Amino acid sequence: MSLFERFLAVDTTAICDADKTTRVMHSAIRARSAATRVFGPAFTVRCRDDFLAVARAVETADPGAVIVVDGRAHEIALGGEMFARAALVRSLGGIVVDGGYRDMAYVSRCELPVYSRFVTPMSGTAAKLGELQVPVTCGGVTVHPGDLVLADDEGLIVVDPARADALLDAALAVKNAESKIIELLDGGKTLSDGFNLAEHVDALGRGEPSVLRPR
Q1: What's the pLDDT at 215?
Q2: What are the helix (H) ranges across 51-194?
Q3: Among residues 103, 136, 170, 212, which one has the fewest Cβ atoms lying within 10 Å of its Cβ?
Q4: What is the pTM of this model?
């Protein structure tokens, strides 16, 4: 089973529960498209109020890559309908912009995942080369070329590809444990039936180390 197929069996919340050091992009960077699920290696872009570097990235990134744009959180559109359509033609995995995006009449129903901090009609210029495939900051976290970018309805996270296999295993374990708790709750049981809640509270009250965990 591929890493992507394994991601479909979990979600970003389970991954974050499995690893509290997971890089989570700021919630202001939101899905603008019909599709929200993202899984692919980052193709990074750094630009400032100029979208030429984004166009270059769309044309040169490998299929499946996710374009991650450090636009310094400026409210200037660094992409729109044409870039989304071109990314679909090239089978890219998505576009994530810490800046603006536009053309929502198309993008809002687009099957390419598109995330941005702002929606704005004002586009940038196309006169500066910008930088491709360098470490960038997007949504408050550092993204290196090749880092795995994952997203769903909960938000965007960034994962070291070397850790993805173990992390997805841990996330699946979290989901399986959650399923058992949900089954108990659906059957009329309480949180205390599913978790060591009372013991955990008592231990913390005594100043002892404790972990809230399923029974």
Answers
A1: 85
A2: 52-60, 81-89, 104-107, 164-186, 191-194
A3: 212
A4: 0.94
